[in-house]
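Practice record 12: protein with magnesium ion.
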Amino acid sequence: MGKIILLDNALSNMIAAGEVVERPSSVVKELVENSLDAKATSIQIAIHDAGRTKIVVNDNGEGMDRDDAVLALKRHATSKIKTEFDLFRIKTLGFRGEALPSIASVSKMTLETSTGRGGTKIQAHEDNITINDAPARTGTTITVEELFYNTPARLKYLKSDQTETSSCIESVSRLAIGHPHVSFSFTVDDKVVFKTSGRGDQLETIMQVFGATSAKNMVPFAYSCPDFTISGFLGKPDIAKSNRYYMITLMNGRAVYMPKIQAAIIEGYRDFLPNVRFPFTILNLKVDPSLVDVNVHPSKREIRFSKEDLLKQVLVEMIPNHLKQTSLVAQPIISNIKKTAPDHIDNASLSLFEPNTEYVANAPQPAVIGDGAIIAKLRAMAQLHFTYIVATSHTGALVLIDQHAAAERINYEKFQAMAKTSTYQVTPLVPLLIELKPSEARLLDESKITALEETGLTLVPFGINTYQVTQIPIWAREYDERQYVEGLVDQIIHLEKIDILALRDEAIATKSCKRSLKANQSLSMTEMQKLIDDLLKTENPFSCPHGRPTMIEFSQYELEKMFKRTGF
Ligand code: ADP
Ligand code: MG
């Protein structure tokens, strides 16, 4: 008798804190994830003394009213799990309603929040909670001071300021890269570490977080199958690192640790990197959360994914293919030539693709095709394997063009322009019913139907798990309507977050691919010339919408060099 006691609240929070709050970076991560969950579009993060004395996370999210704010500090209070089904979908993302009370139990926490109507300021110091009014500025600011002041063992376990600061930078970097639509600003001891624009462009975010050199040496990739969609960037071997920290995997936007996938990426780079170097990669993985297994470790976010073997296989095959293609495009020879080229050689004749000054300053780096390109005219000469067009440029270069990739680029930009300018909806040519599996129908909630509507697709319920498509965007007419609609519905169901622009872009990319001229197709000289002219008129003539190059260039200088007609 009397052996079993209920832990008091403060003590059980401290025990939970041991799991959730290991170090300052875990506090930063939990707080920023809450801001993201609250749909913030702008998040400011500041840490002082490696997060030991102060961490501030300020967001413009939806905020909390007073009752919710008080509740948020209680254990297992979460607004994110309402049904058992939610629990199943969501548990892998760590919604357990534990973060705020855990952090509050090992620090002095101040929470200021408002939904726009009235505002609340709560100070939680030890077990005392004081509640005051605050300005009605929509959003939330959480200040965590003197972290671990009451848990000396934790404090002792912390590493050097530099290590803890680096860990915070890593956490915030990953969150920023995973959320290019959110503008992040991160300061360490009042010095700005990075700011991101939140414009939704992941490559731009990479540049803002990791710098221009990293961004310039990234090869985009994308692949999708019924079980998952992947996209992201493969760092060229030149920017490889000595550790694995730059191998970033984002599952539905959240940084996760997947050792097997990491191993598969390293395997994919095997022929391109020495053993001691690790690639810089960003892998965005979109999956149905029900295919994801429970956390192996709650704070490290190590996860298992039931289609992991398939994903591994895709990566191991895709990575070397992409890198091989790029090694042709990004020609290290050019950068050597640039450096040694004597003045009398007109720079423009060295390459069609003039690198910008920043790149020259950072030489030797492979030239990335398309950087500030100057292309006037290409003349079609012949067709090779019914797949490539052999052309010459006014600068004397030999250029090979992939006819399918070129057509894809042209169509992509054409459709994009149409989709942008026309919101005109029409009824499908034949009545269109979309029948979903019950598991999928549950996922197609109101917000997703609204998001589809914004892409020009109107669905009306039509019996159990069935929808009638009453309206489609006019430009979808040029496509197999059913395939287009099913593709979009499938995407919206399986994406965690609804990203209309990406959705539309993806639809357009798929559409331009399907409708494009294929390889193994004979072309007349006129057709080839027309394709080239149209390609050169596009905004980004150097790659197809999936990031593969459309053309490969051998400058006159390189040809001379290969034939050893030059002195260097
Ligand atoms: P969880 O994120 O698992 O729900 P937390 O302890 O991290 O648990 O947060 C508890 C609750 O507090 C959240 O479910 C949310 O409703 C609310 N909350 C926390 N941070 C914010 C924020 N920045 N903006 C709005 N609501 C927040
Ligand atoms: Mg949380």
